[in-house]
Amino acid sequence: MFRNPLLLKALSLTAAVSVWGLIDTQGLTEFAAGMVTVTLKSRGWFVMLTASMMRIASIWLALSRFGGITLGRSGDKPEFSTFSWLAMMFAAGMGVGLLFYGAAEPISHFLFLHQNMPPQDAASTALFLTYFHWGLHAWAIYGLTGLVIAYFMFRRQAPPLISSPVRIVFGDKPWTRTIGWLMDLLAIYAIAIGLAGSIALGVFQVQDGVASLFNIQSAGLGLGLTIFAVLCLAYTLPLLVDLSKGMGTLSNTAILIAISLMLFVLLEGPTHFFMRGIVDGFGNYFTHVLSQGFQTYPFAQEAVDKYFTDWTLNYMLWWLAWAPFVGVFIARISKGRTIREFILGVLLAPTVFSIFWFGIFGGMGFYQGAANQLDPTVVQTNINSTTFLLLETMPLSRLTIAATVLAAFLFIVTSVVSAAYV
Q: How far apart (Å, rounded) are the C-alpha atoms in residues 240 and 61?
């Protein structure tokens, strides 16, 4: 590490931002919020256009004659089973976020939409927006980034760097070295900052889960630091073994716990209500996803424009910022798969799972809210605890909350471990 000037500069830049945040948290918050606001206001159209074009390009590649190209030499076989491949990809890209936002995001959208439309329409639109944020566009950003890296990595024997395609396509020239160096620097910086945000998100959720599990009324800084310390210890163990045994085992375990939780809520709750909502959600999503990708609300009221910026644009920018990390990791675990198999696996499997996940947890949130078993305004006062408060309205709540905490913990660990392989 100390012989890599690029890495040292990227870490120095990250450390400087971290110190700034410790010394002047409010100042950094205001600066970051201001930069994000300016970027999304002036370039929001470009963000949506980029995400939509990446989705279209991904689907075209999968259906074209190039879809049969193997990411590797002729005869290379996949290193991991399809389930482990999908589990590692999903854990690295979104895992803990689904646990955090499973019920919270649909409820948040509903509370906003319900101000101007009937509750039935608000609920349906809320789920559609959630599917849109976590569906094809997000995974097309990850997938196309990963596909380009994988192609040059396994077909052209290039290093797994964001700059590799530029240097190989345009040759080793002064300007490509300069642009490539800057690309790699920003990629490392984006990975570090993005990962830090996701770790914080996960720690807060685990903290609220532990507090709910042991009836701790006020979960202070001490509990959060303890959880963070345990996580730091947990990061090291998977790195001491092979990728398939470390990252693979953790990802498989985490995704199996998540699937078990989803099936429990599906079968214990109003199953017919969930399945009607999911079938409706599939039709609604795949019917309108193309046009929604180009929706920028240029003539909307200020409140709608702000909501679009705070949610949709923030999500798309977040996926783009995470693309260097998740894309490179997906590339590293995808040797031996065809381009068609890669794209269909990366885009469709997580999207379908997300529709089921949000359809069940979001549907349960609506159902319990209508039955006065869950106060929907919890998403405005303590969004971290939404999932746990929802599980408390169901049987075996201590067991399901413990499983959620464990899954969140494992998803955080897999995110950090996958970053170590990038």
A: 37
Element (H, E) at 56: helix 25-63
Alpha-carbon 396 to chain mean position: 28
d(C-alpha 164, C-alpha 247), whole Å? 25
Q: What is the mean pLDDT of residues 40-44?
A: 83
Q: In this structure, what DSSP letter does residue 309 have? A: I
Q: Which of 58-72, 95-109, 112-126, 202-216 has the lowest mean pLDDT?
A: 202-216
Cα 265 from chain centre: 22
355-374 tens-digit pLDDT: 999 999 999 999 888 777 78
Residue in 410, 420, 385 with CA at minimum distance from that of residue 90? 410
Q: What is the pTM of this model?
A: 0.89
Query: SS3 for 166-213, per residue?
Result: HHHHHCCCHHHHHHHHHHHHHHHHHHHHHHHHHHHHHHHHHHHHHHHH
CB atoms within 10 A of CB 297: 13
Distant-in-sequence, close-in-space partners of 319: CB < 8 Å, separation ≥ 6: 51, 137, 138, 141, 142
Sign of CA dihedral 345, 351, 357, 360: negative
SS3 content of the chain, % helix, strand, coil (to 5): 80, 0, 20
At residue 191 the predicted structure's pLDDT band, cuts being 50, 70 and 90, is confident
* Average pLDDT score, the chain: 85
Percent of the chain surpassing pLDDT 70: 95
**Crossing angle between the packed helical segments 136-154 and 82-93, to the nearest 10 degrees:** 120
Q: Report the distance separating Cα 356 and Cα 274, nearest Å.
A: 9
In the block, residue with structure tokens 């076989």? 77
* Backbone conformation region of residue 122, classed left if phi is above 0, alpha if psi is from -120 to 50, else beta: alpha
Q: What is the CA radius of gyration of the chain?
A: 21
Q: How many CB atoms lie within 10 A of CB 229?
A: 10
Phi, then psi, of 373 in degrees rounded to 5 = -95, -15
CB atoms within 10 A of CB 245: 11
Rounded to 5°, angle at Cα 121 from 118 and 126: 120
Digit-coded pLDDT (tens) for 97-130:
888 888 899 999 999 998 888 988 999 999 999 9
Query: Residue 277, SS3?
Result: helix
